[in-house]
Amino acid sequence: MHQARWMARAIYSLKICLLESQLKMIAKDKKDLQDVCLFIVTLYVKPWLECTVATKAPNQDLCFLKALNHYKKVDATISNASINKFSHHLWYLCEETVILSIFDDEVDDQTKIKMIANFHRDRSSDFGKRFIPSKEELSQNLIDMTLDDFVSVKSKQFLPRLQIDDSFLQEDVSTWKQNSAFLEAKRRISRLRVVNDTAERAVKLMQDFNGHITAEEEQKQFLLRCVQEHRNLYPDCKKTTLKNKYPC
C-alpha cells in the first residue's frame, strides 16, 4: 500500500480510462483497464491515502484484507492476486504492533476493551514479526477475525518498549480522552512512521556502501553516527540549508 510508484501507474490508468474515447484500444485492453480502475476507485484509494497514519495501520490492514476477500464477488482474479501480494505485508497485525489500534478513533470502545482483556492471554501460535495468514485462514477464518484476536501477553510490551507511560490502561476506556497519559501516548504514537519506503531506502543505502569505506565494525558505527549527524544538520538540499555553517 506504500508503493508510490504503483500509485503513479494507477493514476495513469485512471487518466487513460477517462480519455479512452480519444484512444484506439482493443476491446480486451479496454476491459482490463476498466477492471483495474474499478479496483483502484472502490478499494485502493482510501487505504493508500491513510497508509501513513500509525494509529490506523492495524485496523486498516485487517479491513483492507477483508475487503479484498469480499471483492471476489466482483473480480476473483484481481481479488486473489491482491490477497496473495498483500498478505505478505501485514506487519501491523502481529501481537505487539496491533496495540496501535487502541489509539484509533475508528475502533469502537468494545473492541478496545476486548483487546485489553487479552493482555493476559498466552497465544499458542507465534506470528513472529508479521502475520502471514495461511490459505485456510484466508479462505475461512479471515472474515470472523477481529483486532482482539491478535492480542496476547506480548502486546503489552509495545508501549514500554517505546518508553511510553501505559498507566492509562488501568482506567476505563471511556475516560481515556480526558487522560493526560493517554493523550501524550497518542501524540507520540501518531508521529511513528509506518510506511516501509523510508526503512527500505536506508537498508538499500547500507547494502550498497557497506564495506566500501571501512571494514572495521567500530569505524563503521562511527561513520554511521557522522552521517546521521550530518543529515540532521542538513535535512535537505535547499540553498538556505546548505549555507548553514557546520558547528565546530
From TrEMBL:
Which superkingdom heads the taxonomic lineage of this protein's source?
Answer: Eukaryota
PANTHER family assigned = PEPTIDASE M17 LEUCYL AMINOPEPTIDASE N-TERMINAL DOMAIN-CONTAINING PROTEIN, SNAC DOMAIN-CONTAINING PROTEIN
For this entry, the protein name equals: Uncharacterized protein LOC112904792
Species annotation: Agrilus planipennis (Emerald ash borer)
Primary gene name? LOC112904792
